[in-house]
Design a protein that fits this description.
The complex is a heterodimer of chains A (225) and B (110). Chain A is built from nine helices and nine strands. Chain A has 225 residues and is an alpha/beta fold. Chain A has one domain: Spore Coat Polysaccharide Biosynthesis Protein SpsA, Chain A, CATH 3.90.550. In chain A, the strands form two sheets. A seven-stranded mixed beta sheet of chain A has the order 3-2-1-4-7-5-8, with helices on both faces. The radius of gyration of chain A is 16 Å and the shape is globular. Chain B is an all-alpha fold and 110 residues long. Chain B has two domains: 48 residues; 46 residues. Chain B has four helices and one strand; from the N terminus they run H-H-H-H-E. In chain B, helix 1 packs antiparallel against helix 2 and helix 3 packs across helix 4. Classes of the chains: A alpha/beta (225), B mainly alpha (110). Chains A and B meet through helix 2, strand 3 and helix 3 of A and helix 4 and strand 1 of B. Strand 3 of chain A pairs antiparallel with strand 1 of chain B, so a sheet runs across the interface.
């Protein structure tokens, strides 16, 4: 199966090479969308062997993922797409496990979860509480029964990915994807994944302020359009 | 009295400005008509304030000034809503454009 990893990347010149090299052995190609980085992220990703697409203006993680998916489907002819991260929080070795339900035809969407047994290494209690609140908020709005709603480790079959059209450019895309899975009636499963929290990745994580902005984006999309 | 003159002068200036924008093709015909009507109403209300009381009595609101405040809140809320939709549309179009440029100019590593 021709699987393509899509990585949205913003100012990750230090970590992007390792992420690309971590994912490459498990997929046919890695697509990095450099979302208007001010550093050498794009160059580093290219050197590591990725297809690099550059947003000339920063449009947000949701927009970058959609760009990568469009390219993977239309140009590379991907049969499956994996959303992977740019900062080394995820493990490339878990990609085959994420793709397995798609290969077996059991699901069109596979969602990684930090709360199904595998470890979310070093996750602070406050972050865990924020995520749990986010899960509750999204489950109530989407009506989807999942244990983790803002986990960036996901996989889609080509048919599933074609039905996912991300319009929320910023962080609210995670909830939008779940909404679309419900609306388009995609078959989905969750898989336990490992997420490694280092001091650096925690430092650039979602602040409470950003979490509120994300919630407003979701509500606006739901009730205004 | 000074306030009335200043408001009428400003309304006339706004009408003139809108028509000039129309002549330069910076504003549409509908925009210039709508704005001209709006500012003409402002001039009438400022010149003959009692007219608002007639409207107030007709629609069942106590005072003329209240009619203006209520109407302004409703109109401004609607304008903000329209601007928000327009801003969202522009943002989505910008993302589409940035995306198309990114896909056209892909760089392959390895």
């Amino acid at each position: 199966m021709r699987a393509v990893a899509v990585i949205a990347c913003y100012n990750e010149e230090v970590r992007i090479s390792a992420s690309v090299r971590d994912a490459l052995p498990y997929v046919s190609a890695v697509v990095v969308v450099d979302d208007g980085s001010r550093d050498q992220s794009g160059q580093r990703a290219k050197e590591a062997g990725a297809h690099v697409l550059t947003h000339i203006i920063n449009r947000g993680q949701g927009a970058a993922l959609q760009t990568g998916m469009d390219y993977a489907l239309q140009v590379l002819g991907a049969e499956a797409i994996v959303h992977f991260d740019a900062d080394g929080q995820m493990l490339g070795s878990e990609i085959p496990m994420m793709l397995e339900p798609i290969e077996k035809g059991e699901a069109e969407a596979v969602l990684g979860s930090r709360f199904l047994g595998r470890s979310a290494e070093n996750m602070p209690a406050v972050r865990q509480m924020m995520i749990r609140l986010g899960v509750l908020f999204t489950v109530l709005l989407s009506g989807i029964r999942v244990t983790d709603t803002h986990n960036g480790f996901r996989a889609f079959s080509a048919s599933g990915a074609k039905l996912i059209r991300i319009t929320l450019d910023r962080m609210a895309h995670a909830s939008e994807i779940l909404d679309l899975i419900v609306a388009k009636r995609l078959r989905y499963v969750e898989r336990p994944v490992t997420i490694w929290y280092s001091a650096e990745t925690l430092g650039k994580g979602q602040s409470t302020f950003k979490a509120v902005a994300t919630a407003i984006d979701i509500l606006k999309k739901k009730f205004v359009g | 009295m000074i306030f009335q003159i200043a408001l009428i002068a400003f309304a006339l200036f706004a009408i003139l400005k809108t028509w000039k924008q129309y002549q330069k093709k910076e504003a549409s015909k509908y925009w210039v008509i709508a704005f001209s009507i709006l500012w003409t109403v402002v001039i009438i209300v400022v010149a003959v304030p009692n007219i608002t009381s007639i409207v107030a009595n007709a629609v069942g609101v106590g005072r003329g000034a209240d009619v203006i405040v209520y109407s302004a809140i409703v109109i401004l809320t609607y304008v903000v809503y329209r601007l928000m939709l327009k801003q969202q549309k522009l943002s989505a179009e910008m993302t589409d454009l940035v995306r198309a440029i990114a896909i056209q100019n892909v760089e392959k590593g390895g």
